[in-house]
Amino acid sequence: MTSDKDVCGTDPAPARLTVGIVSAGRVGSALGAALERVGHVVFGVSAISDASVRRAESRLPDSRILPAEDVAASSELLILAVPDSELAGLVSGLAAAKAVRPGTIVAHTSGANGIGILAPLTALGALPLAIHPAMTFTGHDEDIARLANACFGVTAADDIGYAIAQSLVIEMGGEPVRVAEENRTLYHAALAHGSNHLVTLIVDAVEALRAALAGPGLLGQQVIDDQPNGLAERMLAPLASAALDNALRRGPSALTGPVARGDVDAVAAHLTALQALNPDLAAGYRAQSLRAAQRAKTNPALLDLLEGR
Length: 309
Fold this sequence. Notes:
single chain, 8 strands
Protein backbone atom coordinates (compact mmCIF):
# COMPACT_ATOMS: atom_id res chain seq x y z
CA MET A 1 0.00 0.00 0.00
CA THR A 2 1.09 3.58 -0.56
CA SER A 3 1.70 5.74 2.48
CA ASP A 4 1.38 9.49 2.80
CA LYS A 5 5.15 9.59 2.91
CA ASP A 6 5.26 8.00 -0.55
CA VAL A 7 3.04 10.74 -1.95
CA CYS A 8 4.44 13.70 -0.07
CA GLY A 9 7.98 12.63 0.91
CA THR A 10 11.24 12.23 -0.93
CA ASP A 11 10.20 9.18 -3.00
CA PRO A 12 7.45 10.50 -5.27
CA ALA A 13 7.16 7.36 -7.41
CA PRO A 14 6.01 4.36 -5.34
CA ALA A 15 7.26 1.08 -6.78
CA ARG A 16 3.79 -0.48 -7.00
CA LEU A 17 0.32 1.01 -6.77
CA THR A 18 -3.19 -0.30 -6.36
CA VAL A 19 -4.90 1.07 -9.46
CA GLY A 20 -8.57 1.69 -10.18
CA ILE A 21 -9.87 2.76 -13.58
CA VAL A 22 -13.03 4.63 -14.53
CA SER A 23 -13.85 3.49 -17.23
CA ALA A 24 -12.75 0.41 -19.20
CA GLY A 25 -12.97 2.11 -22.58
CA ARG A 26 -10.29 1.98 -25.24
CA VAL A 27 -7.92 4.29 -23.38
CA GLY A 28 -8.53 3.13 -19.81
CA SER A 29 -8.20 -0.57 -20.58
CA ALA A 30 -5.00 -0.02 -22.58
CA LEU A 31 -3.41 2.01 -19.78
CA GLY A 32 -4.51 -0.55 -17.23
CA ALA A 33 -2.95 -3.39 -19.19
CA ALA A 34 0.27 -1.39 -19.63
CA LEU A 35 0.47 -0.65 -15.89
CA GLU A 36 -0.15 -4.28 -14.99
CA ARG A 37 2.68 -5.35 -17.26
CA VAL A 38 5.11 -3.42 -15.06
CA GLY A 39 3.73 -4.78 -11.80
CA HIS A 40 1.00 -2.39 -10.70
CA VAL A 41 -2.25 -4.05 -9.64
CA VAL A 42 -5.45 -2.97 -11.36
CA PHE A 43 -7.89 -4.23 -8.75
CA GLY A 44 -11.07 -2.78 -10.21
CA VAL A 45 -12.62 -1.01 -13.15
CA SER A 46 -15.97 0.50 -13.92
CA ALA A 47 -17.56 -0.71 -17.14
CA ILE A 48 -21.11 0.08 -18.19
CA SER A 49 -21.47 -0.70 -21.89
CA ASP A 50 -21.25 -4.24 -23.22
CA ALA A 51 -18.15 -3.29 -25.19
CA SER A 52 -16.44 -1.94 -22.05
CA VAL A 53 -17.30 -5.08 -20.09
CA ARG A 54 -15.85 -7.28 -22.82
CA ARG A 55 -12.75 -5.11 -23.01
CA ALA A 56 -12.27 -5.28 -19.24
CA GLU A 57 -12.68 -9.04 -19.21
CA SER A 58 -10.19 -9.43 -22.05
CA ARG A 59 -7.49 -6.93 -21.12
CA LEU A 60 -7.87 -6.93 -17.33
CA PRO A 61 -9.19 -10.39 -16.47
CA ASP A 62 -8.08 -10.24 -12.83
CA SER A 63 -9.86 -6.93 -12.15
CA ARG A 64 -13.30 -6.69 -10.63
CA ILE A 65 -16.01 -4.71 -12.39
CA LEU A 66 -17.35 -2.27 -9.81
CA PRO A 67 -19.34 0.98 -9.55
CA ALA A 68 -17.18 4.06 -10.06
CA GLU A 69 -17.45 5.14 -6.42
CA ASP A 70 -16.23 1.74 -5.20
CA VAL A 71 -13.31 1.85 -7.61
CA ALA A 72 -12.38 5.33 -6.38
CA ALA A 73 -12.65 4.43 -2.70
CA SER A 74 -10.00 1.69 -2.84
CA SER A 75 -7.53 3.23 -5.30
CA GLU A 76 -4.07 4.53 -4.60
CA LEU A 77 -3.91 5.59 -8.25
CA LEU A 78 -7.30 6.43 -9.75
CA ILE A 79 -7.38 6.83 -13.53
CA LEU A 80 -10.36 8.70 -14.95
CA ALA A 81 -10.51 7.66 -18.59
CA VAL A 82 -13.98 8.88 -19.53
CA PRO A 83 -14.72 11.11 -22.56
CA ASP A 84 -13.94 14.80 -22.14
CA SER A 85 -17.62 15.72 -21.97
CA GLU A 86 -18.21 13.39 -19.01
CA LEU A 87 -15.16 14.25 -16.93
CA ALA A 88 -16.49 17.27 -15.02
CA GLY A 89 -19.66 15.44 -14.02
CA LEU A 90 -17.73 12.39 -12.87
CA VAL A 91 -15.35 14.49 -10.77
CA SER A 92 -18.24 16.39 -9.18
CA GLY A 93 -20.05 13.16 -8.38
CA LEU A 94 -17.02 11.50 -6.79
CA ALA A 95 -16.33 14.65 -4.76
CA ALA A 96 -19.92 14.92 -3.55
CA ALA A 97 -19.81 11.28 -2.44
CA LYS A 98 -16.37 11.82 -0.84
CA ALA A 99 -15.35 8.64 -2.62
CA VAL A 100 -11.69 9.61 -2.99
CA ARG A 101 -9.43 9.37 0.05
CA PRO A 102 -6.83 12.04 0.88
CA GLY A 103 -3.49 11.17 -0.69
CA THR A 104 -5.00 9.38 -3.66
CA ILE A 105 -3.27 10.07 -6.95
CA VAL A 106 -6.03 11.02 -9.39
CA ALA A 107 -5.04 11.14 -13.06
CA HIS A 108 -7.36 11.87 -15.96
CA THR A 109 -6.56 11.13 -19.60
CA SER A 110 -8.28 14.10 -21.25
CA GLY A 111 -6.12 16.00 -23.71
CA ALA A 112 -8.21 19.16 -23.55
CA ASN A 113 -8.10 19.55 -19.77
CA GLY A 114 -5.39 20.22 -17.25
CA ILE A 115 -5.65 19.68 -13.52
CA GLY A 116 -8.14 22.49 -12.91
CA ILE A 117 -11.03 20.20 -13.69
CA LEU A 118 -9.94 17.97 -10.79
CA ALA A 119 -10.26 20.83 -8.26
CA PRO A 120 -13.21 19.26 -6.33
CA LEU A 121 -11.07 16.17 -5.67
CA THR A 122 -7.93 18.18 -5.01
CA ALA A 123 -9.87 19.99 -2.28
CA LEU A 124 -10.42 16.61 -0.62
CA GLY A 125 -6.68 15.95 -0.51
CA ALA A 126 -6.15 14.12 -3.81
CA LEU A 127 -3.00 14.65 -5.85
CA PRO A 128 -4.15 15.76 -9.33
CA LEU A 129 -2.51 14.75 -12.60
CA ALA A 130 -3.40 15.11 -16.27
CA ILE A 131 -1.75 12.31 -18.28
CA HIS A 132 -2.79 12.26 -21.93
CA PRO A 133 -1.37 9.70 -24.38
CA ALA A 134 -0.90 11.52 -27.68
CA MET A 135 -2.12 8.72 -29.88
CA THR A 136 -5.33 7.35 -31.31
CA PHE A 137 -6.94 4.24 -29.83
CA THR A 138 -8.75 1.62 -31.90
CA GLY A 139 -9.73 -0.80 -29.13
CA HIS A 140 -7.47 -3.50 -30.58
CA ASP A 141 -4.31 -5.08 -29.18
CA GLU A 142 -2.01 -2.74 -31.08
CA ASP A 143 -3.10 0.09 -28.74
CA ILE A 144 -1.04 -1.33 -25.89
CA ALA A 145 2.04 -1.80 -28.07
CA ARG A 146 1.73 1.74 -29.43
CA LEU A 147 1.81 3.20 -25.92
CA ALA A 148 5.49 2.26 -25.79
CA ASN A 149 6.23 4.71 -28.62
CA ALA A 150 3.83 7.48 -27.64
CA CYS A 151 4.44 10.84 -26.07
CA PHE A 152 2.21 11.72 -23.10
CA GLY A 153 1.22 15.31 -22.34
CA VAL A 154 1.48 15.65 -18.54
CA THR A 155 0.32 18.46 -16.26
CA ALA A 156 0.63 18.52 -12.48
CA ALA A 157 0.32 20.93 -9.58
CA ASP A 158 3.95 20.77 -8.42
CA ASP A 159 7.29 19.04 -8.89
CA ILE A 160 6.20 15.99 -6.91
CA GLY A 161 3.20 15.55 -9.17
CA TYR A 162 5.35 15.92 -12.27
CA ALA A 163 7.79 13.34 -10.91
CA ILE A 164 4.99 10.85 -10.31
CA ALA A 165 3.50 11.44 -13.77
CA GLN A 166 6.90 11.14 -15.39
CA SER A 167 7.62 7.88 -13.57
CA LEU A 168 4.28 6.33 -14.57
CA VAL A 169 4.68 7.26 -18.23
CA ILE A 170 8.25 5.98 -18.39
CA GLU A 171 7.17 2.72 -16.79
CA MET A 172 4.63 2.25 -19.58
CA GLY A 173 7.38 2.87 -22.13
CA GLY A 174 6.15 6.29 -23.19
CA GLU A 175 7.83 9.69 -23.30
CA PRO A 176 6.49 12.25 -20.80
CA VAL A 177 6.21 15.84 -22.06
CA ARG A 178 5.32 18.75 -19.78
CA VAL A 179 2.31 20.83 -20.89
CA ALA A 180 1.51 24.00 -18.95
CA GLU A 181 -2.00 24.19 -17.51
CA GLU A 182 -2.85 27.28 -19.56
CA ASN A 183 -1.72 25.60 -22.80
CA ARG A 184 -3.80 22.42 -22.60
CA THR A 185 -6.48 23.64 -25.03
CA LEU A 186 -3.89 24.72 -27.60
CA TYR A 187 -2.04 21.42 -27.12
CA HIS A 188 -5.23 19.46 -27.72
CA ALA A 189 -6.22 21.56 -30.74
CA ALA A 190 -2.84 20.93 -32.37
CA LEU A 191 -3.12 17.17 -31.91
CA ALA A 192 -6.71 17.08 -33.13
CA HIS A 193 -5.79 19.13 -36.20
CA GLY A 194 -2.85 16.89 -37.04
CA SER A 195 -4.60 13.55 -36.51
CA ASN A 196 -8.38 13.85 -36.88
CA HIS A 197 -8.18 16.16 -39.87
CA LEU A 198 -5.58 13.90 -41.45
CA VAL A 199 -8.14 11.09 -41.39
CA THR A 200 -10.69 13.29 -43.16
CA LEU A 201 -8.09 14.35 -45.71
CA ILE A 202 -7.12 10.76 -46.51
CA VAL A 203 -10.73 9.53 -46.69
CA ASP A 204 -11.59 12.38 -49.07
CA ALA A 205 -8.57 11.58 -51.23
CA VAL A 206 -9.55 7.90 -51.34
CA GLU A 207 -13.10 8.84 -52.40
CA ALA A 208 -11.79 10.90 -55.29
CA LEU A 209 -9.23 8.28 -56.28
CA ARG A 210 -11.84 5.51 -56.33
CA ALA A 211 -13.92 7.60 -58.71
CA ALA A 212 -10.88 8.27 -60.89
CA LEU A 213 -10.00 4.56 -61.07
CA ALA A 214 -13.55 3.30 -61.68
CA GLY A 215 -14.30 1.36 -64.85
CA PRO A 216 -12.46 -1.40 -66.71
CA GLY A 217 -9.03 -2.17 -65.29
CA LEU A 218 -5.98 -4.09 -66.43
CA LEU A 219 -6.03 -7.87 -66.57
CA GLY A 220 -5.97 -9.11 -62.98
CA GLN A 221 -6.46 -5.64 -61.49
CA GLN A 222 -8.53 -5.50 -58.31
CA VAL A 223 -12.07 -4.23 -58.80
CA ILE A 224 -12.66 -0.78 -57.35
CA ASP A 225 -15.30 -0.83 -54.60
CA ASP A 226 -16.11 1.01 -51.39
CA GLN A 227 -14.38 -1.41 -49.03
CA PRO A 228 -11.38 -0.16 -47.01
CA ASN A 229 -7.84 -1.29 -47.78
CA GLY A 230 -8.46 -1.59 -51.49
CA LEU A 231 -6.56 -0.50 -54.58
CA ALA A 232 -7.12 3.23 -54.02
CA GLU A 233 -5.72 2.97 -50.49
CA ARG A 234 -2.70 0.98 -51.67
CA MET A 235 -1.99 3.52 -54.38
CA LEU A 236 -2.24 6.44 -51.96
CA ALA A 237 -0.37 4.84 -49.04
CA PRO A 238 3.26 5.28 -50.21
CA LEU A 239 2.61 8.86 -51.30
CA ALA A 240 0.82 9.82 -48.09
CA SER A 241 3.39 8.05 -45.90
CA ALA A 242 6.27 9.81 -47.67
CA ALA A 243 4.52 13.18 -47.41
CA LEU A 244 3.96 12.73 -43.66
CA ASP A 245 7.54 11.61 -43.12
CA ASN A 246 8.90 14.53 -45.17
CA ALA A 247 6.72 17.03 -43.30
CA LEU A 248 7.91 15.78 -39.92
CA ARG A 249 11.55 15.68 -41.01
CA ARG A 250 11.78 18.80 -43.16
CA GLY A 251 8.91 21.08 -42.18
CA PRO A 252 7.30 23.44 -44.72
CA SER A 253 10.01 22.76 -47.30
CA ALA A 254 8.42 19.33 -47.83
CA LEU A 255 5.45 20.94 -49.61
CA THR A 256 5.33 20.01 -53.30
CA GLY A 257 2.73 19.90 -56.06
CA PRO A 258 0.70 22.45 -58.00
CA VAL A 259 -0.10 24.69 -55.03
CA ALA A 260 3.56 24.99 -54.04
CA ARG A 261 4.41 25.76 -57.67
CA GLY A 262 1.65 28.37 -57.92
CA ASP A 263 0.03 26.54 -60.85
CA VAL A 264 -3.31 28.34 -61.12
CA ASP A 265 -4.59 26.33 -64.11
CA ALA A 266 -3.92 22.95 -62.47
CA VAL A 267 -5.58 23.91 -59.20
CA ALA A 268 -8.58 25.39 -61.03
CA ALA A 269 -8.96 22.15 -62.97
CA HIS A 270 -8.77 20.17 -59.72
CA LEU A 271 -11.53 22.25 -58.20
CA THR A 272 -13.77 21.76 -61.23
CA ALA A 273 -13.27 17.97 -61.21
CA LEU A 274 -13.83 17.67 -57.47
CA GLN A 275 -16.89 19.93 -57.58
CA ALA A 276 -18.47 17.55 -60.09
CA LEU A 277 -17.74 14.59 -57.84
CA ASN A 278 -18.62 16.03 -54.42
CA PRO A 279 -19.03 19.74 -53.62
CA ASP A 280 -18.15 19.18 -49.97
CA LEU A 281 -14.93 17.44 -50.95
CA ALA A 282 -14.13 20.30 -53.31
CA ALA A 283 -14.68 22.80 -50.49
CA GLY A 284 -12.24 20.87 -48.30
CA TYR A 285 -9.66 20.85 -51.09
CA ARG A 286 -10.07 24.59 -51.57
CA ALA A 287 -9.64 25.34 -47.85
CA GLN A 288 -6.58 23.13 -47.48
CA SER A 289 -5.06 24.45 -50.71
CA LEU A 290 -5.48 28.00 -49.46
CA ARG A 291 -3.62 27.17 -46.26
CA ALA A 292 -0.90 25.41 -48.28
CA ALA A 293 -0.61 28.44 -50.57
CA GLN A 294 -0.25 30.72 -47.56
CA ARG A 295 2.48 28.47 -46.16
CA ALA A 296 4.29 28.39 -49.52
CA LYS A 297 3.90 32.16 -50.10
CA THR A 298 3.04 31.23 -53.65
CA ASN A 299 1.60 32.94 -56.75
CA PRO A 300 -0.77 35.78 -55.68
CA ALA A 301 -3.10 34.80 -58.53
CA LEU A 302 -3.53 31.39 -56.95
CA LEU A 303 -4.41 32.99 -53.63
CA ASP A 304 -7.02 35.08 -55.44
CA LEU A 305 -8.51 31.95 -57.01
CA LEU A 306 -8.67 30.07 -53.71
CA GLU A 307 -10.10 33.03 -51.81
CA GLY A 308 -12.75 33.51 -54.51
CA ARG A 309 -11.63 36.98 -55.46
